[in-house]
Amino acid sequence: MGHLDRRSVVVPAELPPHVEAYKKQQFRWAKGSFQVVRKILPSVLRADLPLTVRFMAILHLTGYFVHPLMLSVLLLTLPVGLLVPGAFNLFPISLIAGLGPPLLYLTATATQHRSVLKRMSTFPLLVIVGFGLSLSITIAVLEGLFSKGGAFIRTPKLNLGNRRKQRPAIDRGYVAPLSSMVWIEIALGLYALFTGIVLEPYMGWGIAWMVIYMLGFFYIAGLNLIQHAPDVRQQRTESGAAD
């Protein structure tokens, strides 16, 4: 047998079609990662291993920790901007770190044989989704670090295809229920908007990155509410029939 290119192996799979299902999937992955961090990372750091190996272990296991940092930046920007405005003088230097995600994304998609512009066309949406998930994944990280066990929440599979005309009817009872976290996400989006308005006279366009937080939380929460609108209408209908 000749060499089998792993990219030629087709495996049937389905991405989470709803925001709530995707959030639950990412929550499970993030929590599981930090349960592993709590369990084995101290041993890895104490082991007689090369420094590069230990460093790579930290990067690999704690990748989701970027979301608590993102949420912390949002919550602290307003008080720091009002009390210690000079702290943002270092902000232009920190922009260098912003080059990491797009470079990583370009590297990961290098085998797709598409132009750089086509590959980067989806990057803004990825950024917005990443910011919008920061609350959910932060909670997952904290649970993974400080709580033990937990129920395995399976990602719903609805047997959907890429073509809308061929999609079967969805069993709404199998759709992940709407989490009350959506209202906190809306509140965080409003907080980001408020932060931008308050600090704009002091920082000018330097505070425009609050727009990314606002769009992220509003996008995730808004799409979640839209996708669960049929459930809400059904509940109202059943309630009215019962009366």
Explain this structure to me?
It is a single chain. With 243 residues, the chain is an all-alpha fold. The protein has one domain (16-82, 109-152, 172-232). 63% of the residues lie in helices and 0% in strands. The chain contains eleven helices and no strands. Helix 1 runs antiparallel to helix 2 (51-61).
List the helices and strands and how they pair.
Elements lengths: L18 H28 L4 H11 L4 H18 L7 H4 L5 H9 L7 H5 L2 H10 L1 H13 L34 H23 L6 H18 L1 H14 L1
Helix pairs in contact: 1-2, 1-8, 3-8, 3-9, 7-10, 9-10
Tally of domains: 1
What Rg, in angstroms, do the CA atoms define? 21 Å
Give me the number of helical elements.
Answer: 11
Bin the strand percentage. Answer: under 5%
Main beta-sheet annotation? none
Q: Which oligomeric state applies?
A: single chain
Number of strands: 0
Which descriptor suits the 3D outline?
globular
Structural class: mainly alpha
Order of helices and strands: HHHHHHHHHHH
Q: Could you tell me how far the N terminus lies from the C terminus, measured between alpha carbons in angstroms?
A: 69 Å
* Percentage of residues in helical conformation: 55-70%
Low confidence ranges: 236-241
Name the average pLDDT.
81
